[in-house]
Amino acid sequence: MWSHLSRTKPSKAVMCRETRLQGRNGSRTLALAKDSDNSNNLPWATVEYYTKKQERLMDKFGNLIHNERTVKEPAAWTHDAKMAFAIQVLAREFPNVTEEELRKRLLQLQALLPDLKPGPSVKPADLVRVAARLHTAAENLLILRDELPNLNVSCLASGWPQLLLADPERLTTDLQEVKSLLSGCGPAAFRELLEEFPHLLLPANAVALLDNVARLFELGGEGEDGRELGRTRAAQMLGSQPSLARSAVPLVSQTRGERDPEYLADTTRAEV
Question: pLDDT tens, 190-203?
Fold first, then answer.
């Protein structure tokens, strides 16, 4: 049902105060007319209508809470319900681990990495998969701390939990290669880049970032030597302006494969 505007007497201005009522199928808004001496308000009134717009979290004064989770949880589909459902489904992928064992490992994982929580970049299923491979995750966490002592590895893992599921030997090799590629950025910019874009810990993504910066600012040349020169200059430019990475970071890594493959092929054609 849509809102309906109706004209009232033009000689008298009215104001509306809204009373929000929770309906079963959505929000119910009732607009009530109120006499006022303010002649600048147009004479209008609304009748009650229904909307499917999601309710937002508000403080006691009615102001929206400014964070990344402003939508109220549905009564039945809460974060705990999502986690319980993920445990039931993914327990079939790990026949040697029971649901009760997965719940215990999730508690251990929370103590090990307090920043790793469900959110925009971490799904409940990701947490369950990491908990199922808790020994590998702990080993990879030690590798991250050894190779990147100046970075908050808990923040890195929460931004990209796939790091904890990688092969430990492959992870060590990748970290050393990425440090070599981005060494020209300097320690401060290196830390800022990885904390904002943890997926740059994959060498292919770091190379794509440097190539994009070199292409956008025409820093490279022809042939293999020209590409290497462009990457060196791009790393130096990122060292002075790390924010440039926001316009040059690879789109494939940003989407994490969640979009249609054909769409990704079209939008990243210039990066290939």
Answer: 999 999 999 999 99
